[in-house]
Amino acid sequence: MKPCAEMFVEFLKAKDMNFQCGTDKDGDTVVEFPYNGKVTKLFFCGEQGEYLSMYLVYEHVPEEKLVDVIFACNELNNNFKWVTYYVDKDNDVVCHDDAILTVENAADEAFELLVRLLQITEKAKPAIMKAIYA
Protein backbone atom coordinates (compact mmCIF):
# COMPACT_ATOMS: atom_id res chain seq x y z
CA MET A 1 0.00 0.00 0.00
CA LYS A 2 1.23 3.48 -0.82
CA PRO A 3 2.44 5.50 2.21
CA CYS A 4 -0.17 8.29 2.02
CA ALA A 5 -2.97 5.76 1.66
CA GLU A 6 -1.55 3.68 4.49
CA MET A 7 -1.55 6.68 6.81
CA PHE A 8 -5.15 7.47 5.87
CA VAL A 9 -6.24 3.86 6.42
CA GLU A 10 -4.54 3.78 9.83
CA PHE A 11 -6.33 7.04 10.69
CA LEU A 12 -9.71 5.51 9.78
CA LYS A 13 -8.92 2.36 11.77
CA ALA A 14 -7.97 4.44 14.83
CA LYS A 15 -11.36 6.19 14.59
CA ASP A 16 -13.08 2.78 14.19
CA MET A 17 -14.68 3.87 10.92
CA ASN A 18 -16.29 1.63 8.33
CA PHE A 19 -14.37 1.43 5.03
CA GLN A 20 -12.89 -0.98 2.52
CA CYS A 21 -9.46 -0.84 0.98
CA GLY A 22 -7.98 -2.41 -2.15
CA THR A 23 -5.85 -1.87 -5.22
CA ASP A 24 -7.11 -1.06 -8.71
CA LYS A 25 -5.74 -2.40 -12.01
CA ASP A 26 -3.24 0.48 -12.20
CA GLY A 27 -1.76 -0.36 -8.79
CA ASP A 28 -3.36 2.64 -7.07
CA THR A 29 -4.78 2.25 -3.58
CA VAL A 30 -8.56 2.67 -3.44
CA VAL A 31 -10.40 3.35 -0.21
CA GLU A 32 -14.20 3.06 -0.29
CA PHE A 33 -15.94 5.08 2.40
CA PRO A 34 -19.71 4.48 2.82
CA TYR A 35 -21.83 7.30 4.17
CA ASN A 36 -25.54 7.98 4.10
CA GLY A 37 -26.32 5.22 1.58
CA LYS A 38 -23.60 6.21 -0.90
CA VAL A 39 -19.93 5.34 -1.27
CA THR A 40 -17.08 7.81 -1.80
CA LYS A 41 -14.08 6.27 -3.53
CA LEU A 42 -10.67 7.73 -2.74
CA PHE A 43 -7.85 6.94 -5.19
CA PHE A 44 -4.28 7.40 -3.95
CA CYS A 45 -1.99 7.64 -7.00
CA GLY A 46 1.68 8.42 -7.53
CA GLU A 47 4.75 6.80 -5.99
CA GLN A 48 3.82 7.78 -2.44
CA GLY A 49 0.06 7.94 -3.04
CA GLU A 50 0.38 11.71 -2.90
CA TYR A 51 -2.20 12.39 -5.63
CA LEU A 52 -5.67 11.99 -4.17
CA SER A 53 -8.87 11.90 -6.22
CA MET A 54 -12.26 11.43 -4.56
CA TYR A 55 -15.44 10.48 -6.40
CA LEU A 56 -18.98 10.15 -5.14
CA VAL A 57 -21.55 8.95 -7.66
CA TYR A 58 -24.55 10.77 -6.33
CA GLU A 59 -27.63 10.08 -8.43
CA HIS A 60 -28.59 8.80 -11.89
CA VAL A 61 -30.09 11.38 -14.25
CA PRO A 62 -32.94 10.50 -16.61
CA GLU A 63 -32.25 11.58 -20.19
CA GLU A 64 -35.10 14.13 -20.18
CA LYS A 65 -33.61 15.88 -17.11
CA LEU A 66 -30.02 15.98 -18.35
CA VAL A 67 -30.01 19.68 -19.32
CA ASP A 68 -31.62 20.73 -16.03
CA VAL A 69 -29.06 18.76 -14.03
CA ILE A 70 -26.12 20.13 -16.01
CA PHE A 71 -27.34 23.66 -15.25
CA ALA A 72 -27.71 22.71 -11.57
CA CYS A 73 -24.16 21.31 -11.56
CA ASN A 74 -22.88 24.55 -13.06
CA GLU A 75 -24.61 26.55 -10.33
CA LEU A 76 -23.22 24.24 -7.65
CA ASN A 77 -19.71 24.65 -9.08
CA ASN A 78 -20.13 28.41 -8.70
CA ASN A 79 -21.29 28.06 -5.09
CA PHE A 80 -18.96 25.39 -3.74
CA LYS A 81 -15.27 25.75 -4.54
CA TRP A 82 -14.02 22.56 -2.85
CA VAL A 83 -16.09 20.09 -4.85
CA THR A 84 -16.78 19.80 -8.57
CA TYR A 85 -20.11 18.51 -9.87
CA TYR A 86 -20.63 17.02 -13.31
CA VAL A 87 -22.70 14.47 -15.21
CA ASP A 88 -20.61 11.56 -16.46
CA LYS A 89 -21.04 9.41 -19.59
CA ASP A 90 -23.43 7.10 -17.69
CA ASN A 91 -25.70 10.07 -16.84
CA ASP A 92 -24.72 9.99 -13.17
CA VAL A 93 -24.15 13.11 -11.09
CA VAL A 94 -20.61 12.85 -9.76
CA CYS A 95 -19.09 14.88 -6.92
CA HIS A 96 -15.32 15.11 -7.29
CA ASP A 97 -12.31 16.54 -5.48
CA ASP A 98 -8.53 16.37 -6.05
CA ALA A 99 -5.60 17.11 -3.76
CA ILE A 100 -1.87 16.74 -3.48
CA LEU A 101 -0.80 15.23 -0.16
CA THR A 102 2.46 14.79 1.66
CA VAL A 103 3.28 11.80 3.81
CA GLU A 104 3.38 14.17 6.80
CA ASN A 105 -0.19 15.43 6.35
CA ALA A 106 -1.87 12.64 4.35
CA ALA A 107 -4.20 11.30 7.01
CA ASP A 108 -5.48 14.63 8.34
CA GLU A 109 -5.70 16.29 4.93
CA ALA A 110 -7.47 13.38 3.21
CA PHE A 111 -9.96 13.09 6.07
CA GLU A 112 -10.62 16.84 6.10
CA LEU A 113 -11.31 16.79 2.36
CA LEU A 114 -13.55 13.75 2.67
CA VAL A 115 -15.60 15.44 5.38
CA ARG A 116 -15.85 18.62 3.28
CA LEU A 117 -17.01 16.65 0.25
CA LEU A 118 -19.70 14.92 2.30
CA GLN A 119 -20.87 18.13 4.00
CA ILE A 120 -21.00 20.07 0.75
CA THR A 121 -22.87 17.24 -0.94
CA GLU A 122 -25.49 17.34 1.81
CA LYS A 123 -25.91 21.11 1.24
CA ALA A 124 -26.15 20.55 -2.53
CA LYS A 125 -28.68 17.74 -2.27
CA PRO A 126 -31.82 19.92 -2.62
CA ALA A 127 -30.56 21.50 -5.86
CA ILE A 128 -29.65 18.14 -7.37
CA MET A 129 -32.92 16.50 -6.38
CA LYS A 130 -34.98 19.45 -7.61
CA ALA A 131 -33.24 19.34 -11.01
CA ILE A 132 -33.86 15.60 -11.34
CA TYR A 133 -37.32 15.17 -9.86
CA ALA A 134 -39.13 18.53 -10.22
- Biggest sheet architecture: 6 strands, antiparallel
Helix content: 40-55%
Let me know the number of strands: 6
Q: What is the terminal separation in angstroms?
A: 44 Å
Unreliably modeled segments: none
Helix tally?
3
Shape call = elongated
Strand content: 25-35%
The SS-based structural class is alpha+beta
User: Averaged pLDDT, please?
Assistant: 95
Secondary-structure element pattern, one letter each: HEEEEHEEH
**Cα Rg:** 15 Å
What's the topology here?
Blueprint: H1 3-14, E1 20-23, E2 29-35, E3 38-45, E4 51-60, H2 66-79, E5 84-87, E6 92-100, H3 106-133
Antiparallel strand pairs: 1-2, 2-3, 3-4, 4-6, 5-6
Which structural traits does this protein have?
6-stranded antiparallel sheet; alpha+beta; 134 residues; single chain; 6 strands; elongated; 3 helices
Describe the model:
A 6-stranded antiparallel sheet has the order 1-2-3-4-6-5. It has 3 helices and 6 strands. The protein is of the alpha+beta class and 134 residues long. Helices cover 40% and strands 31% of the residues. The radius of gyration is 15 Å and the shape is elongated.
Provide a brief overview of the structure.
This protein is α+β, with helices and mostly antiparallel strands. 40% of the residues lie in helices and 31% in strands. The protein has helices spanning 3-14, 66-79, 106-133; strands at 20-23, 29-35, 38-45, 51-60, 84-87, 92-100.
